[in-house]
Write a structure and sequence with these properties.
With 142 residues, this protein is α/β, with parallel strands linked by helices. The protein has a domain of 86 residues: Rossmann fold. It is built from five helices and seven strands, in the order E-E-E-H-E-H-E-H-E-H-E-H. A hairpin with a 2-residue loop joins strand 1 and strand 2. The N terminus is likely disordered.
Length: 142
């Protein structure tokens, strides 16, 4: 499926059971094509709250019962994903919420910085559909 010039996403996954009540997952991603891909892949299994930046992220956190966060590192706006992660993990209100980092920045130093900021797991783009779904399921089912 071609969503726009330069972005290609393929969805091939086996049947996964759909939970009876969709749990809320906050997605902080500023690339619209990636947002569309994540909506197609994850929307069947989770209620997604999509955010483009830190302002929308904090509004989404306040207005929803979020169970998990998918966070991009490189965001447009006043804060990047690692800064947001640090703030959330230092907050008594949000520090218990798992953060899955989904980033194209995959060098060892990038991973180290992400874990130091407080992400619970780091997934490099591109990530397989099965790996992303199983990682989210692992955190949701804890």
């Amino acid at each position: 499926m071609l969503l726009s010039n330069g972005s290609r996403f393929f969805i091939n996954h086996k049947y996964l059971p759909v939970p009876m009540a969709k749990l809320k997952v906050l997605v902080v991603e500023d690339d619209i094509d990636t947002q569309l891909f994540l909506e197609l892949l994850l929307g069947k299994y989770y209620h997604l709250v999509m955010c483009l930046n830190d302002v929308e992220c904090y509004a989404g956190m306040r207005n929803n019962d979020i169970r998990l966060i998918v966070m991009d590192v490189a965001l447009k706006g006043s804060m990047d994903g690692l800064q947001i992660t640090r703030e959330l993990k230092n907050s008594d209100q949000y520090k218990h919420i798992p953060i899955v980092c989904l980033s194209a920045h995959v060098l060892e130093n990038d991973k180290r910085l992400a874990y130091e900021a407080g992400v619970d797991v780091f997934l490099g783009k591109p990530v397989s559909n099965e790996k992303l779904l199983s990682t989210l399921d692992d955190f949701i089912l804890r």
